[in-house]
Amino acid sequence: MKRTISISITLMVLMFLLAGGCSGQKSEYQYQDTENLVTLVREAAALVEKNGEEAFSQFKTEGSKWWKGETYIFVVDTEGNMLVHTDPKLEGKNQMGLRDVNGKPIIKWFIDEVSSYEGETEGWSHYLWPKPGDIFPIWKTTFVKLATATSGKKYIVGSGVYNMSIERTFIEDEVKDAARLIESKGTDAFSELRDPAGDFIFQNVYVFVINQDGTELVNPTFRHLEGTNVMDLKDIEGKYLIQAMFDLLRTQDSGWIDYNWPKPGESRSEKKSSFVMKANLGETWVLVGSGVYLGSSSQTITAPGVTDIEILIGSSSALSGHAGQLGTRYINGAMARINQINEEGGIYGRKIRVISYDDQYDPPKAVENTQKLINEDKVFALFNYVGTPTAVQVIPIVEEAKVPLVGLFTGANVLREPVNKYIFNIRASYYQEIEHAIKYFVDKLGLKKVAVFYQADDYGKDGLEGTKIALEKRGLEPVVLGSYIRGTMDVEEAVNAITESEAEAVVMVGTYSPTAKFVKLVKEKTPKMIFHSVSFVGPEELVRELEGYTENVFVTQVVPPLYQTELLDSVEKYNENLAKYYPGESPSFGGLEGFVNAKVLVEGLRRCGGNLTREGLIEALESIKDYSAGIGAAVTFSENDHQGLDKVYLTAVENGEFVFVYIK
Hints:
Elements: H1 9-18, H2 32-51, H3 56-59, E1 67-68, E2 71-72, E3 74-77, E4 82-84, H4 106-115, E5 122-130, E6 137-148, E7 154-162, H5 168-185, H6 190-194, E8 208-210, E9 216-218, H7 241-249, E10 254-262, E11 269-281, E12 284-293, E13 310-317, H8 324-343, E14 351-358, H9 363-375, E15 381-386, H10 388-401, E16 405-409, E17 423-424, H11 430-444, E18 450-455, H12 458-472, E19 481-484, H13 492-499, E20 505-509, H14 512-525, E21 530-533, H15 539-546, E22 553-557, H16 569-581, H17 589-608, H18 614-622, E23 627-628, E24 634-635, E25 649-654, E26 657-661
Parallel strand pairs: 13-14, 13-15, 15-16, 16-17, 18-19, 18-20, 20-21, 21-22
Antiparallel strand pairs: 1-2, 3-4, 3-7, 5-6, 6-7, 8-9, 8-12, 10-11, 11-12, 22-25, 23-24, 25-26
């Protein structure tokens, strides 16, 4: 339910779009019953707009799609006259004064829902009402939509469901409306938030308001908390839930927090998830929130790979073979974060279990693993794939099965353009890495003659194309090309071609063993050659295999240097967690990237709420804007951009360690 508040047209439209009010937008609902109700009302409204008042007779036919048992279409005009209803006591009369047992003005709410904000023509109301033939009222949730008939007259078309499960959208709408009310009326809004006849209290839902010092200003259900400091309030598991809410709002404007809390009138705690956001109050801001009890849903969603206690995630990567260290470090870095999340209770009480298969950086094995993960293991989503040639081959499988794939250890452009609905890249692209390196070589060092050494597959060719693009911007082109076959060490032909040219620098797009051999052989013939490799090479393994041949070797990275623990939270936590869960493994850039990927995956799962669907995960990830991943760069996705990060770091090898190279 929404109130008329003085607010600019621009802000109203913005809030409407954020709330997902447009019928043309992707679904924001978790439950099929909700979807069915919305579809029914929208179809009924469309019929009114097409046939006008003649449509009313169709709505009155019992047993039709418009009237089945407890679910039926009603029509009321903007003056409150009930024109269509299954109850003859209500039909044909003005019902503007109709209220539920708590005094909630039902018809007035319906009208307000479709007229309070310009351009907003549909919405939800929650109230107590008896089922047909019953005396005692129960909670009913009604969806209404404005329809303009051919006559030009406007009608409100609606239908409702008894004891409907609480949608996350309902909670977000309540909190946003409460925040707008507070910003409009100040502390005078508090009485409306406490009013049982108002629209902020229904079922087990209520709005709470907390000052920044921890003082609870509004809590209509637990009134004894009002006026007290709740900053140190803990749930049954010892979680400082209020502190967690404020911690979230220090990094983003709104979000969800899960914890354990008793229902109103009960002493036993249950899993609860609350949506919180900031609301300006005078010269400061307050925390406004509301929540949903996760165990109270009357509907269940049976997404593959999801149970009451587990979320099953699948991964295929190189865990052995010539790229084995890359995949091993990558998945271990991710598990260093996921293990921590599981120890803290998981996502809404569900632990994340990762099934990880070894594809040895071989495309056919990656295809086989992916099919097994989807069809036999029934995973909810795919995660942390390694390599371009492998990832490219699983794209058709992912698209056909409609399974999200989150986090890929590849910067290939083919996985970014055009945007694929089911693939979410987190790292920067190879094009961006190579542009960064060429900027240093050409713009800063003044080099003009650049060669390319690449793996002869999709990965290498993507890097080659990226180099050509970067050089072409500067009126240059590669002076010579050299390649090798994936899975081999046959680099001699490339060495000869490049050393016999006038190349001053080489862009390398390969894996660590053949790349290290290439560098050492080139250095024997051309000691002053400057080398650059993209991040996929496996920086630590490259340095180890170079055996001291590291002068003038540069590597672009997509995560910050590992020694920046004091400045960057995730770098510090990655080092800490890796030592805890994988004590024999040293920190690595690939491991840190996997750790960041896991943070983004977890954030997406949390934003889905307690009821997971694959489409819901896609929408949740696309909703991430300026999310702090703890690495000094914010993650942002959208429907039109499935690459979360753009930051690239140039590093050089000094004394066997990678140091940051600043480029102005």
